């Protein structure tokens, strides 16, 4: 099997196993601030909730254990409060209350479309942000507060954060190869989109994770898991999910749709579709990655295969020495000791 | 091909001036190098490369120190930094052709300069201690003694002449109270609390090197990493709860990777702050850092470094007999990982035996066990040898087995061995005993492994199928051969003539038996025959059902 050790080393290199203590402490202080300050702010606006009514749930890669190293630590924690959404129909206002509860130095807090973001800086550089999607539980329904602070577009959107967690944990937990493949695909995305400035042009992690789960191809031999073949087949499977659609000028362009497997069953690539070029770029880059991985699978030499994989996953993937060089070096190695 | 032709065959290389035959400059990746070809008339020589006039490049294997030429006769003035491209004695140069040596050297240089950041990090970590100790301050070399390296722990600092020992609390070093005349060799210093911090994830941790010095950030990144957790939760909780008593502290970090195993110390000077925990101190009080030249020196680490049997480390071994065989066995047990021995022997070391005594001429006229104790302690201060300068009695044997893990008999007397075997069997001895003896004649020897919970004991060898006592049935030498090898020196004194080969052979076989026992490969009581040709399970009938000690009759 080619590149077994290189893939294992690469996974060790990019993987984040758990929250650091620095992150955990920041998150816990943030959660304490929410629980201690938000009820008072809400009461001032005639919304009565107690500290124990507030529920926090882990979301995102830390929940699914698919976190990889990145320039900025990105943590997602959902905040759920009981709320009458018909009386409090404007989620932007409730998100404002959450912002006010946590807007304490050294945090920088901003209202984003799907969440409230607490950012942490050191020496003028952001090193961590904790995204806090705000959910309202109203009767038996759960709603996500959507909308930027001053945007005209806002809504309480049907949601099922627990259901999404259950779905993804059910898919990933106990399937170590799938977990690795998700990390590899996210690393590929980070490499390919490292220069991006617009969030919407980058394929979202949730989209890549759901597609990886759908298209995952388990591959192993008697030597163990074959991550190269699994990655190639999984990414090829994702590529095959693209379909043609016609743009406003009637040109055929590639597109991809992936609906959330739980309420609200929306398309996770909807934002990317705001510009057809984003999806086209996604397709082209994915297509190139699949070509490189296919070449890596097909070439005989581990060195050549490594070079193809490095084009996909970046410099952190180490290329093994050329076989002739390695064999020659082995033949001339000193085997004696005095 | 000439050197120049070989170098010019690389697209990346531009050959510049040739200084001497086989010595020339070339540029590669915009850096200038001085290349020395291997010597044609010396097959064991190899090619060498120096980086020329570049003080900034901070690649692994490009040496930190430079040689300056200011009035060059053959070489231009400037600075030259040697590039270490070969692990020491890693290649049999004689079998590599002159041309291939040059190709290999250039290939390695290109590979080195083409490394990705991850590869560079791995190479720096492989050479971590070289960089750490090269960049460290002070003349006092720090020796670290740990009992374990996986948990946060506190250490004591002892200062000697130009040396500092940082010793895990509770770890006893036998020479720590030694004196030079009236002066103590080691003084306990309490002005700095010392802590050992094991690193569990080494990603991103680089040694100081050219253009990169450790600051508070590096320490803070280890104990309070933002993205990567470098220490375990237990270690973090310890750092978070521990309140140092001193303003400044010394930290020892231990870091294990696939490629290296490193331990490095640094002194952390802090602001005066009362009641700050160690974590608070490290996060907010650091003023300066001083890296200290460090070596880990404890016995378990040294054993691990040379591939010793770690299973022996915590075994308490009772060695009965410190004669020729016992002296070899004691020495090799300690060199192979056994740091606790208790030795019994009432004999004095006589000059006639000097050539087959493991320690040469030291200790003539002294008690053998005591001499061994003195000499073994010189090997390492953690080695703990207890001795009794008398032959072991049945009573002492019973006391000893209550706190030992293994008994080894290296006494020649069959009577003593039979007697003590019987004591152990009657006591249903819970620990195994290994009887080791040489046959007269100096050719054959034997090892008998006995677990007293199973059938078979030393007396079985002296018992026939009818339960009658006979002489040792394991004996391979004929009586005539034996008789020829006995030297008589009057008054009934005899000495069997044998050289040290049998002692070395038997001791090596004993070490293998102990390892096999430790790895649960010895499942039954076993007799082993050792000859110059081979080491085999004996064909002597064993155990004997009719044995009066352990067999049916004995029951």
Can you lay out the helices and strands and say which pair or pack?
The complex is a heterodimer of chains A (338) and B (555).
Chain A: H1 4-14, H2 21-44, E1 55-59, H3 60-64, E2 73-82, H4 91-102, E3 107-111, E4 116-122, E5 125-132, E6 134-138, E7 141-146, E8 155-158, H5 161-172, H6 176-192, H7 205-215, E9 220-221, E10 224-225, H8 227-239, E11 243-246, E12 252-255, H9 276-298, H10 302-313, H11 323-331
Parallel strand pairs in A: 2-5, 2-6
Antiparallel strand pairs in A: 1-2, 3-4, 4-5, 6-7, 7-8, 9-10, 11-12
Helix pairs in contact in A: 2-4, 6-7, 6-8, 7-8, 8-9, 9-10
Chain B: H1 3-8, E1 13-20, E2 23-28, E3 31-36, E4 48-52, E5 67-69, E6 78-83, H2 98-113, H3 117-126, H4 128-134, E7 141-145, E8 153-160, E9 163-168, E10 179-180, E11 183-184, E12 187-199, H5 216-223, H6 233-241, E13 249-256, E14 261-270, H7 278-285, E15 286-292, E16 294-296, H8 299-305, E17 316-320, H9 324-335, E18 340-344, H10 368-377, E19 384-388, H11 394-401, E20 406-409, H12 414-426, E21 433-438, E22 445-450, H13 479-484, E23 486-488, E24 494-496, H14 500-518, E25 526-530, E26 535-537
Parallel strand pairs in B: 7-9, 7-16, 12-13, 17-18, 17-20, 18-19, 20-21
Antiparallel strand pairs in B: 1-2, 2-3, 3-4, 4-6, 5-6, 8-9, 8-12, 10-11, 13-14, 14-15, 21-22, 22-25, 23-24, 25-26
Helix pairs in contact in B: 9-10, 9-14
Domain THIF-type NAD/FAD binding fold (chain B): 312-487
GO molecular function (chain B): nucleotidyltransferase activity; ubiquitin-like modifier activating enzyme activity
Protein name (chain B): Molybdopterin/thiamine biosynthesis adenylyltransferase
Written description of the protein model:
In chain A, a hairpin with a 2-residue loop joins strand 9 (220-221) and strand 10 (224-225). Chain A is of the alpha+beta class. In chain A, strands 1, 2, 3, 4, 5, 6, 7 and 8 form an eight-stranded mixed β-sheet that branches. In chain A, strands 9-10 form a two-stranded antiparallel ribbon. The model of chain A has no long low-confidence stretch (mean pLDDT 94). Chain A folds into two domains: 21-159, Beta Polymerase, domain 2, CATH 3.30.460.90; 165-326, no CATH class. Chain A is built from eleven helices and twelve strands. Chain A has helices at 4-14, 21-44, 60-64, 91-102, 161-172, 176-192, 205-215, 227-239, 276-298, 302-313, 323-331; strands at residues 55-59, 73-82, 107-111, 116-122, 125-132, 134-138, 141-146, 155-158, 220-221, 224-225, 243-246, 252-255. Chain B is built from 14 helices and 26 strands. Chain B has 555 residues and is α/β, with parallel strands linked by helices. In chain B, the strands form five sheets. Chain B has an eight-stranded mixed β-sheet. Chain B has three domains: 3-114, no CATH class; 129-297, no CATH class; 306-537, Rossmann fold, CATH 3.40.50. Chain B has helices at 3-8, 98-113, 117-126, 128-134, 216-223, 233-241, 278-285, 299-305, 324-335, 368-377, 394-401, 414-426, 479-484, 500-518, and strands at residues 13-20, 23-28, 31-36, 48-52, 67-69, 78-83, 141-145, 153-160, 163-168, 179-180, 183-184, 187-199, 249-256, 261-270, 286-292, 294-296, 316-320, 340-344, 384-388, 406-409, 433-438, 445-450, 486-488, 494-496, 526-530, 535-537. Helix content of chain B is 25%, strand content 26%. The mean pLDDT of chain B is 90. Classes of the chains: A alpha+beta (338), B alpha/beta (555). The interface between A and B is medium-sized, with 24 and 24 residues.
